[in-house]
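Researcher: Re-running this chain for the archive, since the previous output was lost when a drive failed. Same request as before.
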Amino acid sequence: MENVYHIPAMLEETLQGLITDREGIYVDVTLGGGGHSRAILERLGANGRLYSFDQDREAIANALQRQEMPCSRWQLVHGNFRYLRNFMDYYGVEQVDGVLADLGVSFHHFDTPERGFSFRFDGPLDMRMNQQGGRTAADIVNSYDEENLARVLYMYGEMKNARQVARRIVKARATTSITTVEQFVEVCQVPKKDMAQLFQALRIEVNDEMGALREMLEGALQLLKPGGRLAILTYHSLEDRMVKNFLRAGNIEGTIEKDFYGNILTPFRVIEKGRQPSPEEVERNPRSRSARLRVGEKK
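Model: Regenerated structure tokens:
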């Protein structure tokens, strides 16, 4: 199989849910391998415009190498999607017709040992989406106290044995710093079936993924024009719950507000309620199996 940067899940279903006006303005806040952005540009008309965000310089370089990407209707934005509203203000865009976010980690990240995202390869314990700054996974593993390590593993990995694993980390690092994936795996002594949750928890903390998602969702709500669509692909229960709550209630807590007559007040009409990929797609692309598509239309 050809080595690819990323294969987007439910591409056709996502575009059908997102695009309502071929001449509109759209934002892909997760460029990644560029699959969604290329497909959006192909669907848009001569006056349509797309802004694509990514904070990873490798993703940016990959997109720029593709001759089919750069065009007069496309603006590449090198930045974290949590600053969606700030960047769109910078470009003078007050309202958009659609915002797309594919929250999955790119295949490239999982398959590149130097990035430290996967337990399948040894490499530096990094996990940063933006390698130009910020804490690495090794920084967190070697500096957080036992209580905070346990909090991260339980909250973001939903690990029942979070306290025991945190205790092992603290004990091991007293002898030598934990700086590689191999060291981390050996120290944690987690069954292989729980390894994905362990690495997910650490990755979420390194990149403040839940905080960034909350800020992006709030910015998208402000940017979308009435009738505009918000399409989100989620891959684990924590982010899916946040997106579900936001589309249902307009806030990440899912707190329902009602008017004087008891009618639910929400800024969205839900279009997709957690659509899953077809069995045929999962067979072609097994990594899509955990994807859930949620789409809301701003009222």
